[in-house]
Amino acid sequence: MMMRSVKRLCTTMALLGVTVGMASGTAVAASMAGSDGMQMGAMPKDLPKAGKPIAFAAAQPLIEYSNSAGVRMDHGKRNTVMFKGQDIHIVMVAVEPGFPDQTFEIHRLADPVIAVSAGAKITLTLLNMDYGGSMVHGVVIGKAKPPYKTIVPVPVAGQIAEIPLTMPRTSQSLGRSGYFVGTTTFKAPQFPGRYYYFCQMPEHAKSGMYGQFVVMR
Ligand SMILES: [Cu+2]
């Protein structure tokens, strides 16, 4: 089932005449009709350190990268952002303004399927844009699948990555706020398979803060 849907994505890509698979992991800029889109996002340099809030101006390149990197493919409920290549940078936003509570955004899709190449070196960054005391968010990627309990003990089975909990933004005002960022690097598994990313803050995964993480061939 999973491989079939990945295959279908690849077929769709081929039909659209899209070239992917840059060795560097950067996407090729292309303009395409319809809702399927592919854009280049400049990979932010000098990623902010965990635990120190950054200003909105410093968060903006990360937001822009998150909104544009990878290949966005809209398939109804199973929207996917595909990252090809062996050197991948993914920026996830926790609750981008305008999106529902307890969601992750990539490419302005809430909780999309993330598809990556097997064996790729992945830099994963989380920018927490949420506001409010308990709006602490992190990311764990592993084999633990939904439905989730209130507390999901970590590490989970088959865990491949974790970004520790990051604090919400410091002010109601987006422009005046400080933003917390977490980053981890890991290697995608060598074999295709289906994993899940979720937020390890109690209640969050249970209330929907998760998505699929698919390792493609
Ligand atoms: Cu969360």
Describe this structure as you would to a colleague.
This protein is mainly beta and 217 residues long. The chain has a single domain, classed as Cupredoxins -  blue copper proteins (Immunoglobulin-like, Sandwich), CATH 2.60.40.420. Helices cover 12% and strands 33% of the residues. The protein is built from two helices and 14 strands; from the N terminus they run H-E-E-H-E-E-E-E-E-E-E-E-E-E-E-E. Strands 1-3-4-8-14-13-10-11 form an eight-stranded mixed β-sheet, with helices on one face. A six-stranded mixed β-sheet has the order 2-12-9-5-6-7, covered by helices on one side. A hairpin with a 6-residue loop joins strand 3 and strand 4. The longest helix is centred in the first third of the chain and has 14 residues, at 2-15. It is globular. Mean pLDDT is 84; it is low at 1-39. Bound molecules: copper (II) ion.
Strand arrangement across the biggest beta sheet: 1-3-4-8-14-13-10-11
Rg, Å, rounded: 16 Å
Tally of helical segments: 2
The CATH topology turns out to be: Immunoglobulin-like
Structural class: mainly beta
CATH-scheme architecture: Sandwich
CATH homologous group name: Cupredoxins -  blue copper proteins
| Order of helical and strand elements | HEEHEEEEEEEEEEEE
Q: Beta-sheet strand percentage? A: 25-35%
User: How confident is the prediction overall: mean pLDDT?
Assistant: 84
Main sheet overview: 8 strands, mixed
Overall structural domain count:
1
Bound molecules: copper (II) ion
- What is the molecular shape? globular
